[in-house]
Design a protein that fits this description.
Layout: H1 2-34, E1 83-88, E2 93-98, H2 111-119, E3 128-130, E4 152-154, H3 155-163, H4 168-183, H5 190-207, H6 230-242, H7 244-249, E5 254-255, E6 268-269, E7 286-294, E8 298-307, E9 310-319, H8 322-337
Antiparallel strand pairs: 1-2, 1-9, 3-4, 5-6, 7-8, 8-9
């Protein structure tokens, strides 16, 4: 009886174990069916896409300068000059240009505008200078201011003689004075002193950007190697307007020296007819610059005007005669102001 009882207990325990195992197997199977497989990422697994930056606005075009007005143009004019221009100083703008502004031309006595500018870099307007034999070292057909040796004049008076009556004799005296100062030798001969001054004119031209110019003398008497360009003459005119003594003198209609001249009994008259009210070419707004004339250069003129607050320079080069330069300047001026 005891053996049968043990057998029944063993069978019961075994059945319980089997039943529990079945329950566990069923539970694991259900988990496999219901839950997705989760695996740890390996180091070689493809990385996930990084988060992207939020979209940005497409780049805008860089700001552009506001459109500028097209440059003003001048009407076609019937001019005798081979080269001419109208230039506004404040805006540095050419409104009219006839001919190539870089073409080589002869400046004639327009040279004196630059030689006085260079001289005033070294001499004060009230400095006194005594004339010497250099006043006779000019060709017979040069324009003169009536000077002779032994006169004591101020630099301002010599500038007046050069810019008003276009005196080449005054040009030689002023050049010799500057040359002697540059060499620190008051006894230097006038030929060497004038040559030294001309060297300084060319050096100054290089410094000031007058790249198309070369000077042989201080007065503009014709020489094949003495030349400039309309562009450089425009620069000379603008420089002269910045020099107070030049601006003052070239606006004068006449001047009387403080000493008696041996070869002239009248005042120095300005050869710029645009300034004289009795001239048929008179323009009230004109206030200066310089004339020039040689056979090779023709009639030349730089003229400055103040028009409604603007400073303009008109350049005329290569006219057939002396009168045409003023007529051409008048046509250009009228076209601009009309």
């Amino acid at each position: 009886m005891e053996d049968k009882k043990v057998l029944r207990i063993s069978i019961a325990v075994l059945c319980g174990v089997v039943f529990v195992g079945l329950l566990l197997g069923i539970g694991l199977g259900l988990n496999a069916l219901l839950l997705p497989e989760v695996t740890e990422p390996s180091e070689t697994a493809a990385p996930t896409q990084p988060p992207t930056e939020p979209p940005t606005e497409p780049p805008t075009q860089p700001p552009t300068e506001p459109p500028t007005e097209p440059p003003l143009t001048m009407p076609e004019l019937s001019l005798t000059a081979k080269h001419s221009f109208l230039y506004i100083v404040e805006t540095e703008q050419f409104l009219m240009l006839k001919g190539d502004e870089k073409e080589r031309i002869y400046p004639a006595s327009l040279t004196k505008l630059f030689s006085t500018y260079v001289a005033l870099l070294y001499l004060e307007p009230e400095t006194k200078i005594t004339t010497g034999d250099e006043v006779y070292a000019v060709p017979w057909d040069s324009s003169k201011a009536g000077l002779g040796p032994g006169l004591t004049l101020t630099v301002r008076e010599l500038v007046q003689a050069m810019l008003l009556s276009s005196g080449s004799d005054a040009s030689m005296t002023l050049a010799a004075a500057v040359g002697r100062k540059l060499e620190n030798d008051p006894k230097l001969s006038y030929t060497k002193a004038v040559a030294r001054f001309v060297d300084e004119m060319n050096a100054a031209a290089g410094r000031l950007g007058l790249t198309g110019s070369h000077f042989v003398n201080p007065d503009g008497y014709h020489h094949e190697d003495h030349y400039t360009t309309p562009e450089d003459m425009r620069k000379v005119g603008a420089l002269a307007l910045q020099q107070p003594t030049l601006r003052e003198v070239m606006a004068m209609r006449q001047a009387t020296p403080g000493v008696k001249l041996p070869h002239l009994d009248s005042p120095w008259l300005n050869t710029n007819f645009l300034l004289h009210p009795t001239s048929p070419y008179y323009i009230p707004t004109a206030f200066g610059m310089k004339t020039g004339h040689t056979k090779a250069a023709g009639g030349c003129l730089l003229a400055s005007f103040c028009v409604e607050g603007e400073t303009i320079i008109i350049g005329i080069f290569g006219c057939q005669n002396r009168e045409d330069r003023f007529a051409d300047a008048q046509k250009i001026y009228d076209a601009y102001t009309g």
